[in-house]
Specification:
This protein is rod-shaped. The strands form 3 sheets. Strands 1-3-2-6-5-4 form a 6-stranded mixed β-sheet. It has a 5-stranded mixed β-sheet with strand order 8-10-11-13-12, with helices on one face. It is of the alpha+beta class. Helix 3 packs antiparallel against helix 4 (261-290) and helix 6 runs antiparallel to helix 8 (406-416). The longest helix is centred in the first third of the chain and has 60 residues, at 2-61. It starts with a helix and ends with a strand. It folds into 3 domains: 1-187, no CATH class; 191-291, Helix Hairpins (Orthogonal Bundle); 294-438, Histidine kinase-like ATPase, C-terminal domain (Heat Shock Protein 90, 2-Layer Sandwich), CATH 3.30.565.10. It contains 8 helices and 13 strands.
Length: 441
């Protein structure tokens, strides 16, 4: 597996280097042809201009019929004076030859001279009724073109070698942190989520990738820690009712005269009810952790009034719902009913004589408030009170019927619906719980 990953990394390095060399190579070849063409054209134009200037000078001074026209270098230049298609004067190096070339005025033509070596370029200038033709040797142009071509033939592979070498080294240096990150990730298992990948010193895409991976590992570590703690707490909580049922059953079995069937049935039913509540709470929390709730429009005020009516029939406290107004939210009705029930039951459990429930719309949100006149929660413990299986005082023990999951269910369900939960002091003297949910309108 490791060798396979290394070969993939190496192939990326090779592909990037090959792509760089290929693209630069194509550009260099095109540039080389352009340079050779430019040199050839530039030098040829220079030779044509010199020939035209020489022809213009001869035409201005005039050339007698039958005269021998002097040239500075017989191997580099020739002159012919033409009358129609007859040579009436020429330089000594082409004496006795017929018409070598008859270019049009202001044009140039390449020619070969039988008595002279090398290619020539010829131009013509009018001289009265006659034409002066001057040819210049362009052997230097050919040599210069060949020299430039040879230089480029040598330089292009060297440049490509340099480009390939530099690209290979740069890509290798760029991919080295990626390989280090991969090696570290390869070593990380579910038991070693505390490990972190190395973060390069430079702030680039790879550095940000490493930082993102470390944040992901931190989230996974926290999630695993919460899951482990949740499983341990759940196992502990489930063990308690099971142990109670078993204990009473063993006592009844060994000492049948000390316990009646009614007493045993009462204990079993009470512990079974507690066990059922705990299992339902755990399933709800697990579902909130794994999937988003179904979305529908829910009249939160209807849910609150229904729970308040239930509470009035079961509790001996005053329940104030005068602050309940219309409030529609988007969410899963069963989960939101569970939130309201948990808050109402929590208030009823800790209230001395009174609880108050309110629903109001504010700034695009629906705010549910539940408060009581009980002992409240110390500000330093309010954040911890929202965690799972947390009981802060004697009133929140197992004997009172609480599982330590009520407020944590409220928090998790509210967060899953895009809302927030806040614990504060109530004007009644106890605890105020404010649940803020996005409004459906």
């Amino acid at each position: 597996m490791a060798e396979h990953e290394r070969s993939r990394s190496g192939s990326i390095r090779l592909r990037v280097t090959a792509a760089a060399v290929l693209s630069v190579g194509i550009a260099l070849v095109v540039a080389a042809f352009a340079v050779v063409a430019f040199v050839d054209r530039s030098l040829s134009s220079q030779a044509e201009d010199e020939a035209a200037l020489r022809a213009q000078q001869l035409a201005d001074h005039g050339v007698a019929v039958g005269a021998t026209v002097p040239v500075p270098d017989p191997t580099e230049e020739f002159v012919q004076v033409l009358d129609a298609r007859t040579v009436v004067a020429s330089s000594a190096n082409v004496a006795g030859l017929g018409v070598i070339a008859m270019p049009a005025i202001d044009e140039s033509v390449p020619v070969a001279v039988p008595s002279l070596a090398g290619p020539f370029v010829a131009v013509a200038e009018p001289m009265g009724t006659r034409i002066v033709v001057v040819g210049l040797n362009i052997d230097d142009v050919t040599e210069a073109r060949q020299i430039v071509a040879i230089a480029l033939i040598v330089a292009v592979p060297i440049l490509l070698l340099i480009v390939g070498s530099v690209t290979w080294r740069l890509v290798g240096r760029t991919l080295r942190p990626v390989e280090e990150i991969r090696d570290e990730v390869e070593r990380i298992s579910s038991r070693e989520l505390g490990r972190r990948v190395p973060v390069p010193a430079r702030d680039d895409e790879i550095g940000r990738l490493a930082a993102t991976m470390n944040r992901m590992l931190e989230r996974l570590e926290r999630s695993q820690e919460r899951r482990r703690r949740f499983v341990a707490d759940a196992a502990h909580e489930l063990r308690s009712p099971v142990a109670a049922i078993r204990q009473h059953a063993e006592v009844a079995s060994e000492h049948p005269d000390t316990a009646t069937v009614e007493e045993l049935a009462g204990v079993v039913l009470a512990e079974d009810e507690r066990l059922q509540r705990l299992v339902e709470d755990l399933l709800l929390l697990a579902r909130m952790d794994e999937q988003a709730p179904d979305v529908d429009e829910v009249d939160l005020d209807d849910v609150v009034l229904a729970e308040a009516a239930r509470l009035r029939g079961t509790a001996s406290i005053d329940v104030d719902t005068r602050a309940v107004s219309a409030g529609r939210v988007r969410g899963e009705r069963a989960s939101l009913e569970r939130v309201v029930r948990n808050l109402v039951d929590n208030a009823a459990r800790h209230a001395r004589t009174r609880a108050a429930i309110g629903v109001a719309r504010f700034d695009g949100h629906v705010v549910l408030s539940v408060e009581d006149d009980g002992p409240g929660i110390d500000p330093s413990d309010r954040e911890r009170a929202l965690e799972r299986f947390v009981r802060l005082d004697g009133a929140r023990d197992r004997g009172s019927g609480g599982t330590g999951l009520g407020l944590s269910i409220v928090r998790d369900v509210t967060r899953a619906h895009g809302g927030s939960v806040e614990l504060a002091d109530s004007e009644l003297g106890g605890l105020l719980v404010r649940v803020e949910l996005p409004s459906a309108t």
